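RETRY 2/3 - previous attempt timed out on the joint model. Re-submitting the same 825-residue input unchanged.
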Amino acid sequence: VSVETVRVTLPISFLSDFGHADEFVGVVHGVVARLSPETHVIDVTHGLPHGQIRPAALSLLRAIHYLPPGVALVVVDPGVGTDRRAIAARTEWGYFVGPDNGVMSPAVAMVGGAENTVSIENSEAMIPSAGATFAGRDVFAPAAALLSSGEAQLEDLGPSVDPDSILPLLLPLPKAGNGSVQGEAWWVDHYGNVQLNIAPDDLRAVGASEGSEMRVIVGSQEHAVRWVHAYGDVAEGEQLLYTDSSGMIAVAVRGARADRRFGLGDGTAVTLAVS
Amino acid sequence: VSVETVRVTLPISFLSDFGHADEFVGVVHGVVARLSPETHVIDVTHGLPHGQIRPAALSLLRAIHYLPPGVALVVVDPGVGTDRRAIAARTEWGYFVGPDNGVMSPAVAMVGGAENTVSIENSEAMIPSAGATFAGRDVFAPAAALLSSGEAQLEDLGPSVDPDSILPLLLPLPKAGNGSVQGEAWWVDHYGNVQLNIAPDDLRAVGASEGSEMRVIVGSQEHAVRWVHAYGDVAEGEQLLYTDSSGMIAVAVRGARADRRFGLGDGTAVTLAVS
Amino acid sequence: VSVETVRVTLPISFLSDFGHADEFVGVVHGVVARLSPETHVIDVTHGLPHGQIRPAALSLLRAIHYLPPGVALVVVDPGVGTDRRAIAARTEWGYFVGPDNGVMSPAVAMVGGAENTVSIENSEAMIPSAGATFAGRDVFAPAAALLSSGEAQLEDLGPSVDPDSILPLLLPLPKAGNGSVQGEAWWVDHYGNVQLNIAPDDLRAVGASEGSEMRVIVGSQEHAVRWVHAYGDVAEGEQLLYTDSSGMIAVAVRGARADRRFGLGDGTAVTLAVS
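RETRY 2/3 succeeded.
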């Protein structure tokens, strides 16, 4: 007899702002393991800034095409303990489970939109709490586990909601004009590289191209920076503009932190101008 | 032929103060994977304060009912390299493996006590070290892996110990009197919420109930705080008392850190008084 | 019918300097899970210092014998975006996948050297990027996953390289003389213990032995320290020299941080002298 084992559970990709100091992440893993022992849970990141929706939404957006189709479990939830809804959506990629605060909206849109979204209200799909609800543990983790194992269908979790009632997330668009593009920093990574909300096509539309000499303007400071392909095109310690691995324009310094050199943080206004 | 795969290994839930800067966590995972490749290891947390027993014991206590029955592997071990014993206990929940320093005692008691506890002394169940023993790697991880795979019974690990010889952990009890309860902060979480060693029943016993106006007294400072159900019952930026998701009274600020506003850290004395 | 499930994929042991703030670690897990859903990925550590090769190489070296034979995936890659090669090596232990910058060289040597090393150049084994290559995600993770699942042989990844062209990592050797050994600190762990590049045999060669009274000389400071077996041999708060769990001489303080007391960081020169 030849047998192949088929993993019939869907993998769960788990993002949160829980950090690693407390047992929050482990408790969510525990709840999933109790309900669906075979489920593979990928910790995408738990280091997202506390209760900030945009950075979490962007992180999920950058990651989604690299995660195995299954369940995205997203717990960045500044509205926990208020009447914000807990939702679950079915898409072509798989399921999204998290708060209705916009954090999942860009990624859901990226994978083609939701076929159906429900408000998680079925108490049979939840874990009772000794006190205030710890939504990650009591609501979102069980929903994700039940969808992963197939023990629940999306519609078992609660009533469908009007798609127009789901909170979107408005991402800022850059403005072009007269040889320059005004945008903002929206991600400073662990290495100090700074991704802008500016795409290569935005720069091309004002006449720049890879190889162009540019100016990066932050407040009253101007910095001369060349738009290159990769780190290797500049010397150690030199600054560069490049299309980063998610396809957006980023500011970096080879071997050092660009956020410090340019004074950039999440949301800082940045103008890129052709020199 | 229809076949179901049964995971015959017990999951291991692993807590430590190892942090994430070194390879300690990974090496423990490696040891488990070498001895029992199919074992699922859940990282509950590795961010526990260095060598502090009470925070680790409380973390395990809060988590235990959410972890899948199996093996709890607990490595917060300020006495490593001394003659403190390494122990393993069998309970109704599963096994507990760690140092005999009290860190596991509250959780073991919570799940009904130990049926048997052994001192891990069988060198065949250990990994020899090139130098000083790294107990997490050389003693605790192999014991947990062998219990997980079923290759060892608890009694194979070493001789049973007198239950009265196992170090307990005395958790401080609050004192009630005259419309107030005196306790202490015993957990500041990642968000700055502060759990006290005071249960809702302790407050009810002095005449308070959900909805009561209370005073939180820390040193010479008094703060007016209402006991509410959840964050949503106060405005953004307002402080609250509530029964948290582990069933204890906690001090919080909606959208901000209560530890900073109230000057609270692990062990700070706190009095809650009915206004 | 009795059936045993055999995990036919090789485990991947993954080290990086990605940190936990971004989704980098999760994206690599995602890529592996998409290509090889059954692969077990062990996170050895992602807290290695940014772009520093020696600490990462030493971490891998300390860990390798405790990791399950399979694939070591090492992403500490200050030369990303330059023309440094991406390589994969086959050894008796298993495969090593990472940059050709020396980070894997000591561990490869430790397990007996490489049977063959290839330069990863086959674009069919890579993931196309929307911009700059994120080598961990686009090159190293797919290579590791394909080796894990057996879908690729090492030689499918690219052409073999001349072993002499692979970057070695020169680890500093201590110098002995006249009752003392001059070395350096090369690892400060999470607890502040400081491992030196000095082995017990180096001390024995100058006449010391366990139990000897020694002097630890750092700059102009001298500290009297006894070489003992373990923490338990000194009182709380006292300093010690001992052979640590990787078999090297380390400086520690029972219950406190030795790096602070002795003023030691990665690379600090340290002389150990017999008193």
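Residues 136 and 246 of chain A are 28 Å apart (CA to CA). Closing ticket.
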